[in-house]
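Progress report, Aim 2. The chain analyzed during this reporting quarter is listed below.
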Amino acid sequence: PDDPSRFFLENLGYTFGFIIVIMARQQLFTENTVTAVLPIMHKPTPRNLLILLRLWGVVLLGNLIGTGLAALAFTHMPLFDAGTRGAFISLGEEVMRHTPGEMFANGILAGWIIATMVWMIPAAGAAKIWVIALMTY
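Predicted structure tokens for the chain:
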């Protein structure tokens, strides 16, 4: 809705998405900053760097392809009514109004938040879902 609850609902949707992705153990590009970097930190060789870059490349490419396919499905398949599809497009256009520098800076901050969340999850035990919700909201 186009009222004060919109901000809350938009952010809650983002949080639910992350809960689904992380609890289902799907692979995010930002999650690969933790375990994948350890071998190169332990033994910084060109081979370990190449392995790290290959992993990051495959996961990033998979994430971008998945995002593109989801956007196509949400836009062209009869999954949502016209108003909901219009809201998706409006949100996307709003994000794309930022400059590349702003998006890069936001990406660094977002990556840090998600990587921090991934480091916190093992210590969270049964509260894992609350760590995800708090860090992504």
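The chain has six helices and no strands. Residues 29 and 59 are 6 Å apart (CA to CA). These observations will guide the mutagenesis work planned for the next reporting period.
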